[in-house]
Amino acid sequence: MRREVILFPDSISTRDSRRCPKKSRKGAEKELKKGAGSKRAILKLLSENPTMTQTELTEELELTRKQIQTDIKELKNEGTLVRKGSNRNGYWIVNRVD
User: Using one digit for the tens of pLDDT, what is the confidence trace for 57-70?
Assistant: First the structure.
């Protein structure tokens, strides 16, 4: 169970997040799915340089290696990204870039 602590000037209150879900703000801009921007950036970089390594991607995009690995795994599962060859001498094939 996740509890949120809400601080008011003269009291402290806790709220159970299951009973009181956060309300959406009217007129608020919708955010992209988590990681959508980094996935697009990965696809762009790999389409320009198919032999790029995960380490090079982390340096270029300023993300952690784990974030890069997760995004690549999701892109591979979607069929958007395919790896040909070995880890050392292989290259990436980008099937489509949105």
Answer: 999 999 999 999 99
